[in-house]
Specification:
The complex is a heterodimer of chains A (158) and B (766). Chain A is an alpha+beta fold. Chain A has five helices and five strands; from the N terminus they run E-E-H-E-E-E-H-H-H-H. Chain A has two domains: 4-79, Beta-grasp domain (Ubiquitin-like (UB roll), Roll); 88-155, [2Fe-2S]-binding domain (DNA polymerase, domain 1, Orthogonal Bundle), CATH 1.10.150.120. In chain A, helix 2 packs antiparallel against helix 5 (142-152) and helix 4 crosses helix 5. The chains are: A alpha+beta (158), B alpha+beta (766).
Chain lengths: 158, 766
């Protein structure tokens, strides 16, 4: 198959590239753009480590082809931090010890960021429900929920 | 004075991890790097008749294809500990030669320009097998139909017996005995980062560099160097971030020889990243042990004797951990109890399954389940409350130090050093409101039966050889600290930074704690069995003390007349009256001017193991119609002697409890009768998610300091997991007691609990 030309926005920067049709979006971000913060934990859409934000929605980048991302706006974990340091969500993760090895953390941060942007008043139960799509082997999840609940206030504009 | 140790400080390693700036092994990218993929056996047991790799070799983008005979110079993978006599006959070759012995065993490797092309090429290799009957359990292992190694004449690698006290008399005199066969199922740790390696041969420097190893870098380097005909110092194990270990990651696996070998052969950097299917098929499994256990008691429930026959399924090969898992399972059967006579018989056998190694709390998770379950059955028979049964038998503080005897053939008798076991039990009983819960044991409330279960345990830590450290003054006045203990995600970077900063009397930001690498430390040992803070921590302190001596020596050599009065205090060199003469930045400038490098070295061996101890309690509700168990409350407690960072150790506790709950209800590596593994995706091998166990409580505290190391630390990494199966199984059994349900086997998945309930119903009269 012939390569595909794509143009997209990644972390607020425009990117153009020519890619193999079978190249996954995760592979494109990691190997072509050197955005290695997006991690691959299972490559079949279960663990959630590779989650990124595509047009506002949390998406598994291992299950999407780079060619499908043509024209989309993408935020990865590298695009979450504020210019002056950690975002409120990232700060809350650190404060509540919501990460240990940190391998699953990028996918959890992006998933929770997408959730709180849509639902800044999400309850602990709702956060838990959405978080259930990401696997963490270190923390037992409880500190993650505490961190997200605390950070939710910063997404709340009313 | 301690400004930082003992404080729940935010972790220094978090910033990079939160921003996607960490470097895990798959993030290492080298110029000219190519990608390796492994062809793995689809069958459990069989002879390799023919391999045809021509199709793969001729593919565009394929650089090389290797089969077993290309690696004839590589040795079998050695054991690094627990050398039970006999297991050395079952060591694993790095790639199958003539025969495959488990699904997932390496048969051929492909190197290609991209990972996708390498995987494509695997499909073009055809292998013809002559299938053999599979060994899948003790029964088939001891039947004459199939031998994994024909030359060995048996599938039983080792058998041994240990005993203390007069077991014959204990059982003869006892008015009460109970004997049960209990089973713990096969699981694995499943770190979120799979294994992976990048290796590159630097011909100019005649040095092999390897990224992706962890845990025991110096052992691995020694084996790799010998296998490739190099000196140890020609192999450098580079530091990366590590996405979880839990015991399985960092051991020397076949790929740790294959990838460097291939890199040296083709003269290019080679990357291999294990995918999740490979991970579930090839990374160490653990926990699969059957225990035929018998106890003898007085009518009041006082333990008189314990006898056990353990059968440990080690999978196809003995790997680096040797006989550690079965020997620990036997050793920890005694637990925190006074048992006058014990006799344990251990049988270590091989099967056509993935090889077994250590997984967080190796042997302990299993042993505590076996013992605590049988103790509750006995208490129930005798009409003694489960807490009272434990109160009667727990070793008291006044009896410490206490040795349960020589229970491991290749080790000295362990010594429980310090603790107040009964006090911990009482705290946990109060925390979970045991008196109230025991009143509703077995009762049906809103359609579900409630039960409370307990598990008391001891946990060994601080094992292994001497650990080293190296402390260096950097040009900017910061201090680099190196040790052989690896950060694998557990927070050791922060813990050791706290200790080093306190010892130096400087702020945390002055200290740069580097993850272990052979480049920066000639000799180190490693991270396992909760030894990082104990061995690494005490080694770092020794290194900092030497570093301070070196600083003072340097200042005296340059300082003129008052030199002998210089002292180090509050992070600076001071005169006798306490005024600051030089801080680290000043000294760094002075040292640079004179071309002098200021460096301290330390090491720490210690005086043997230390034993933490604790109690777990669980309150569950069981739906007897479906077998579904809900954990309504869970409390875990452990005295770890001295908590350097209470937030970090609390994280260890809660995380380990949830991992253990997975091991009770979810995690299960399933094989069929042909030795085919059925759980090779995360849709089949289930682990806890955020909705499964929302109520977990607990406390790790420092009460009784360890007697065997200056910091008084006991390991904090495993106490959270070792008591989970015992507590939960007892709670489920208590809930189902009115239905006479036998809970003797893990996992407690809905189907299995439902089956146990159905069997009890069939057995019931009328």
């Amino acid at each position: 198959m012939t390569d595909v030309a794509i143009t997209l926005t990644v972390n607020r920067q425009q990117v153009t590239a020519t890619v193999e049709p079978r190249l996954t979006l995760a592979g494109f971000l990691r190997r072509h753009l050197q955005l290695t913060g997006t991690h691959l934990g299972c490559e079949h859409g279960v663990c959630g480590a590779c989650t990124i934000i595509v047009n506002g929605a949390a998406v598994r980048s291992c299950l999407m082809f780079a060619a499908q991302a043509d024209g989309s706006e993408i935020i990865t974990v590298e695009g979450l931090a504020a210019a002056d340091g950690l975002s409120p969500l990232q700060r809350a993760f650190r404060k509540h010890h919501a990460l240990q090895c940190g391998f699953c953390t990028p996918g959890i941060l992006t998933t929770m960021h997408a959730l709180l942007q849509e639902e800044p008043h999400a309850s602990a139960e709702r956060i838990r429900e959405v978080l259930a799509g990401n696997i963490c082997r270190c923390t037992g999840y409880l500190p993650i929920i505490e961190a997200v609940l605390e950070a939710a206030a910063s997404y709340n504009n009313d | 004075m301690n400004r930082f140790a003992g404080q729940p400080l935010e972790r220094v390693e978090d910033g990079r991890l939160l921003c996607g700036q960490a470097t895990f092994v798959d993030d290492v990218s080298l110029e000219g790097m190519v990608y390796l993929a492994v062809l793995r056996s689809p069958i459990a047991h069989g002879r390799i008749v023919r391999i045809d790799a021509d199709g793969a070799r001729s593919m565009a983008g394929v650089i090389a294809v290797y089969v077993g005979s290309d690696f004839d110079s590589l040795p079998r993978i050695p054991t690094r500990l627990a050398p039970l006599e006999g297991v050395e006959r079952f060591l694993q070759p790095p790639i199958a030669r003539g025969k495959v012995r488990f699904v997932g065993e390496a048969i051929a490797v492909v190197v290609a320009q991209s990972p996708e092309l390498a995987e494509d090429a695997l499909e073009k290799i055809t292998v013809e097998f002559d299938a053999l009957p599979a060994v899948v359990d003790w029964k088939s292992a001891t039947a004459p139909s199939a031998l994994l190694f024909e030359a060995n004449g048996t599938n039983v690698a080792a058998q041994y017996s240990v005993a203390e006290g007069d077991i014959t008399r204990a059982f003869r005199d006892a008015s009460y005995r109970r004997r049960e066969t209990l089973y713990c199922h096969r699981q694995t740790a499943l770190p979120m980062e799979t294994r992976g390696l990048v290796a590159t041969w630097d011909a100019r420097e005649a040095t092999l560099r390897i990224w992706g190893s962890t845990k025991v870098l110096w052992f691995n380097r020694k084996v790799i160097a010998a296998a490739l005909g190099l000196r140890a110092d020609q192999v450098q194990m580079m530091a990366t971030d590590i996405g979880g270990s839990f015991g399985v990651r960092g051991e020397l696996y076949p790929e740790d020889l294959l990838v460097p070998y291939v890199s040296k052969q083709i003269g290019r950097p080679v990357k291999w990243i294990e995918d999740r299917r490979e991970h579930l098929m090839t990374t160490n499994h653990s926990r699969e042990i059957t225990c035929d256990l018998e106890i003898a008691c007085t009518p009041q429930g006082k333990l008189l004797g314990m006898r056990a026959y353990l059968f440990a399924d080690m999978g196809a090969y003995t790997r680096t951990n040797g006989g550690i898992v079965p020997s620990r399972a036997a050793m920890f059967l005694v637990g925190p109890y006074r048992i006058p006579a014990v006799e344990f018989h251990v049988a270590v056998f091989h099967s056509n399954k993935t090889p077994v190694g250590t997984y967080r709390g190796p042997g302990r998770f299993e042993a505590n389940f076996f013992r605590e379950r049988l103790m509750d059955m006995a208490a129930d028979d005798l009409g003694v409350d489960a807490a009272d049964f434990r109160r009667m038998n727990l070793i008291k503080e006044s009896e410490l130090p206490y040795s349960p005897g020589k229970l491991v053939p290749f080790e000295q008798p362990p010594i429980y050093d310090t603790g107040d076991y009964p006090a911990d039990l009482e705290r946990v009983l109060a925390a979970i409101d045991y008196p109230q819960l025991v009143g509703i044991n077995g009762q049906e409330i809103d359609g579900r039966r409630h039960g409370v279960g307990l598990c008391c345990f001891v946990e060994a830590s601080g094992a292994g050889a001497r650990e080293n450290s190296r402390v260096i003054l950097e040009a900017d006045g910061r201090v680099s600290v190196h040790t052989g203990c690896c950060t694998v995600g557990q927070g050791l970077t922060t813990t050791l930074t706290q200790l080093a900063a306190d010892e130096l009397g400087v702020d945390l930001a002055r200290v740069i704690l580097h993850n272990a690498s052979t480049e920066n430390l000639e000799e180190g040992f490693g991270t396992f069995a909760s030894r990082g803070a104990i061995k690494g921590g005490n080694a770092v302190i020794a290194g900092v003390q030497d570093f301070i001596d070196q600083l003072l020596r340097f200042c005296r050599s340059t300082g003129g007349g008052t030199a002998n009065e210089l002292q180090w205090r509050g992070g600076a060199v001071r005169s006798r009256d306490g005024s600051v003469l030089l801080d680290l930045a000043d000294i760094a400038v002075q040292a640079a001017k004179r071309g002098k490098r200021i460096e301290g070295r330390g090491n720490y061996l210690g005086q043997g193991l230390t034993f933490s101890y604790g109690t777990h309690a669980a309150h569950v509700a069981v739906d007897a119609r479906t077998g579904v168990v809900e954990v309504l409350d869970y409390y875990g407690s452990e005295d770890i002697g001295n908590a350097i960072n209470p937030m970090v150790v609390h994280g260890q506790l809660i995380g380990a409890i949830v991992q253990g709950l997975g091991g009770v209800f979810l995690d299960h590596l399933v094989y069929d009768e042909d030795g085919q593994i059925l759980t090779v995706t995360l849709a089949d091998y289930l682990v806890p998610t955020a909705t499964d166990f929302p109520v977990i409580r607990g406390r790790s505290y420092g009460d009784k300091r360890a007697a065997t190391n200056p910091l008084g630390i006991k390991g904090a990494g495993e106490g959270g997991i070792v008591g989970v199966a015992g507590a939960i199984a007892n709670a489920v059994a208590a809930a189902l007691r009115p239905l006479n349900v036998r809970i003797t086997s893990l996992p407690l998945s809905p189907m299995r609990v439902w089956q146990a309930i159905a069997e009890a119903g069939e057995a019931a009269p009328g």
